[in-house]
């Protein structure tokens, strides 16, 4: 009996060791727009493990393929999409869009990239969305919108709808991804920069920069049902894994807020750095990453205490954050 017990204890310890050794972790990728580099961060240790030099400048958006092998970045005014080896950091392919390239967003299944051409400029050439097939690595469609300057895009959980923030016409567009058609255009606040859907796909949250508000859109009714004041220069959004909280980074008040979605009240706030830019909830962890555009750094915020646990110096003007899954064994 004692021998059996020792064997069971030994097996349990071995299983625990194997679990720890093979535990999943993630890398974060952040484009530093003004120096054309990408910072790569080990999210377990909040440590920069690599800096990739790509070009003289980069677009605000970034994505990583679902298998973590390819990084998708862009050159803003040249309109080039770069397909980069995540392993070597070398550019494997360039795709010329013929348009400005602002946002870069990947569909939930990883099959398509939606590229937004928006800028703070008037002109038909800034009103396009290009769609790239990630398997064929080429543009397969181009959609001209009636709205002005699409910037960032997100998707419903099944990928059937794309949600598009149009910064110069103060609207959000709903795009049927199967038909390639815009099915609704919804007025929101001034300079809607980023969108974030609720976990149940019933609501869409919109960051309005000039107003310092978050618009709440009822997706079924296709209309704004509420607007909440959350700071100054509301720019980036993220949602908690359980869908109970929304986080917003405010550029002008230089802070991150935590909004309880049950009653739409701010329950916490922390100053992060100069010009709090984009925010992401770190997968598999209970913390948030905030890029600070003008202090050129990354702030790590513990979700429970809502205190800063670490700051990392990045390149010039860090923007969006994308994550790739790796196995640490």
Provide structural commentary.
- There is one protein chain.
- The protein has 329 residues and is mainly beta.
- It has one domain: 7 Propeller (Methylamine Dehydrogenase, Chain H), CATH 2.130.10.
- It has one helix and 28 strands.
- A four-stranded antiparallel sheet has the order 3-2-1-28, with no helix packed on it.
- The N terminus is likely disordered.
What key phrases describe this protein's structure?
51% strand; globular; 6% helix; Methylamine Dehydrogenase, Chain H; four-stranded antiparallel sheet; 329 residues; single chain; disordered N terminus; 1 helix; mainly beta
> Which residues sit in consecutive blocks of at least 5 with pLDDT less than 50?
1-22
Helical content, roughly? Answer: under 10%
What is the average per-residue confidence, as pLDDT, rounded to a whole number? 93
The third-level CATH topology is: Methylamine Dehydrogenase, Chain H
Question: How many beta-strand runs?
Answer: 28
Overall shape: globular
Strands of the widest sheet, in order across it, are: 3-2-1-28
How much of the sequence is in beta strands? over 45%
Q: Please describe the biggest sheet, giving its number of strands, its sense, and whether it closes into a barrel.
A: 4 strands, antiparallel
* Count of discrete domains: 1
Give the helix tally.
Answer: 1
- Terminal residue distance: 35 Å
CATH class: Mainly Beta
Structural class: mainly beta
């Amino acid at each position: 009996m004692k021998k059996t017990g020792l064997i069971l204890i030994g097996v349990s310890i071995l299983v625990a060791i194997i679990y720890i050794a093979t535990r999943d972790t993630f890398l974060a990728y952040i484009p530093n727009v003004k120096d054309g580099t990408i910072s790569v961060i080990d999210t377990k240790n909040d440590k920069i493990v690599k800096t990739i030099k790509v070009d003289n400048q980069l677009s605000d958006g970034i994505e990583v393929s679902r298998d973590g092998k390819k990084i998708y970045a862009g050159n803003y005014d040249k309109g080039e999409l770069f397909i980069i080896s995540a392993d070597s950091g070398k550019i494997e392919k360039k795709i010329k869009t013929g348009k400005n390239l602002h946002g870069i967003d990947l569909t939930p299944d990883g099959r398509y990239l939606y590229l937004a051409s928006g800028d703070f400029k008037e002109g038909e050439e800034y009103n396009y969305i290009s769609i790239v097939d990630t398997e064929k690595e080429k543009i397969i469609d181009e959609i001209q919108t009636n709205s002005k300057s699409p910037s960032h895009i997100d998707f419903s959980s099944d990928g059937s709808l794309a949600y598009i923030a149009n910064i110069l016409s103060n609207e959000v567009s709903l795009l049927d991804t199967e038909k390639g058609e815009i099915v609704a255009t919804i007025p929101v606040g001034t300079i809607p920069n980023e969108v974030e859907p609720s976990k149940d796909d019933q609501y869409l949250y919109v960051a309005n920069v000039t107003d310092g508000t978050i618009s709440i859109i009822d997706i079924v009714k296709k209309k704004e049902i509420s607007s909440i004041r959350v700071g100054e220069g509301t720019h980036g959004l993220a949602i908690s894994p359980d869908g109970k909280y929304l986080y917003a980074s405010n550029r002008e008040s230089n802070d991150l807020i935590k909004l309880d979605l049950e009653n739409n009240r701010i329950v916490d706030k922390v100053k992060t750095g100069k010009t709090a830019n984009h925010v992401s909830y770190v997968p598999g962890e209970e913390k948030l990453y905030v890029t600070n555009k003008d202090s050129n750094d990354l702030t790590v915020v513990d979700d429970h205490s809502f205190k800063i646990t670490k700051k990392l110096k990045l390149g010039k003007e860090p923007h969006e954050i994308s994550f790739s899954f790796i196995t640490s064994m």
